[in-house]
């Protein structure tokens, strides 16, 4: 039997460390997915470079003049690109713009994001710094479906990470990142296996339980 | 050498399960504290009954006519009661009223609370239900210093608890409660040992590290 590989499109704005983790999981045979294309709103994003190095299509698509969102025209170009690559799941990996109606509607229930905090604590930017400065003793990361809010969609997996007295924002971020790499691949694998069922705000994992 | 026992006053409104856990830890010799008095704003609170059963002074003190706070006169009576019992630390254990200026000022830096969620997520009432309905995959509990906000003070210890697909609010609450019982005693022991240092919003634990 040949396992079908889920066609994934990745949106990234930065260095693409989560992208790299997905690539590694796929190449190690632990994730039944295929990254068809990596798109960035930043022309020289390191994520694009990483994609090319692994033979993955890598596109910069002009986001338009707005700072925090894509213009409607830009969203249309992003949607078209996903369509052209036969993408069935969008994985945000450090994509720094808020997706709006056009993109969300075109991929309803098929967009995932990884956030470096235990949502609903510390949504938005610099979540690790927010957590550190608040003084929490437990932080972590969250994979969730993307909806129209900022980091508000139904949660698929969370992993907790201790905050230590001698931590800095950097050391905490590093420890959280390791867990991000693990749970993002896990969540995409569950999606690929068709095991995620959304009931209101709760995401139920069907079949044998996977611990977060 | 005779270990000095920290004199503690407990405020409780309900069944007092966290009070019972503290009593058990003390009686088992794991917590160098002595509960001098349990005070309730509810005349027939089970917590008062528990206290009496263990030979601890138990007082109902009329909270006054307001629903969510103590009146200033009532706060004065609570403060006086703590003073009369030589209390050096106040432990809130399911106390359902918000403490105001008079009480806070009289016990600055000497009031702890246990909250059944990973703050700053889900402050306020019915935190376990809030977490369950939000659909988080990790919840937990928090011991924190009490300040003038609702569940906003500096965090001493947090423990994480997984949320399972087959959980109910009751089963989740039960699992969180076990951790509450553990970390509340741990935090009070650290306070008794003089090992908690507050730096801005962060609480540093001095001496050998204790994992939350």
From TrEMBL, chains A, B:
InterPro entries: Formyl_transf_N, Formyl_transf_N_sf, GART, GART_AS. Keywords: Purine biosynthesis, Transferase. It catalyses: N(1)-(5-phospho-beta-D-ribosyl)glycinamide + (6R)-10-formyltetrahydrofolate = N(2)-formyl-N(1)-(5-phospho-beta-D-ribosyl)glycinamide + (6S)-5,6,7,8-tetrahydrofolate + H(+). Its EC number is 2.1.2.2. It comes from the Bacteria. Pathway: Purine metabolism; IMP biosynthesis via de novo pathway; N(2)-formyl-N(1)-(5-phospho-D-ribosyl)glycinamide from N(1)-(5-phospho-D-ribosyl)glycinamide (10-formyl THF route): step 1/1. The active site is at 115 (proton donor). The record marks 151 as: Raises pKa of active site His. Coiled coil: none annotated. (6R)-10-formyltetrahydrofolate binds at residues 67, 96-99, 113. It is an enzyme of class 2 (transferase). GO terms for molecular function: phosphoribosylglycinamide formyltransferase activity. CDD domains: FMT_core_GART. Belongs to the GART family. NCBIfam families: PurN (TIGR00639). Catalyzes the transfer of a formyl group from 10-formyltetrahydrofolate to 5-phospho-ribosyl-glycinamide (GAR), producing 5-phospho-ribosyl-N-formylglycinamide (FGAR) and tetrahydrofolate. This is Phosphoribosylglycinamide formyltransferase. It comes from candidate division TA06 bacterium DG_24.
């Amino acid at each position: 039997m040949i396992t079908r590989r889920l066609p994934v499109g990745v949106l990234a704005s930065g260095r693409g460390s989560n992208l790299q983790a997905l690539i590694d999981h796929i190449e190690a045979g632990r994730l039944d997915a295929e990254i068809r294309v990596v798109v960035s709103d930043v022309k020289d994003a390191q994520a694009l470079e990483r994609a090319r190095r692994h033979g993955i299509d890598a596109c910069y698509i002009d986001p338009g003049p707005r700072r925090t969102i894509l213009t409607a025209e830009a969203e249309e170009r992003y949607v078209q690109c996903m369509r052209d690559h036969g993408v069935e799941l969008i994985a945000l990996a450090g994509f720094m713009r808020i997706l709006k109606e056009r993109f969300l509607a075109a991929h309803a229930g098929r967009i995932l994001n990884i956030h470096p905090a235990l949502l609903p604590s510390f949504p938005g930017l610099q979540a690790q710094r927010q957590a550190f400065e608040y003084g929490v003793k437990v932080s972590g990361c969250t994979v969730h479906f993307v909806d129209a809010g900022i980091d508000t969609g139904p949660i698929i997996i969370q992993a907790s990470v201790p905050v230590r007295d001698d931590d800095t924002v950097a050391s905490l971020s590093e420890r959280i990142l390791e867990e991000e790499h693990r749970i993002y691949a896990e969540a995409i694998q569950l999606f690929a296996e068709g095991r995620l069922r959304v009931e209101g705000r709760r995401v139920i994992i069907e079949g044998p339980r996977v611990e977060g």
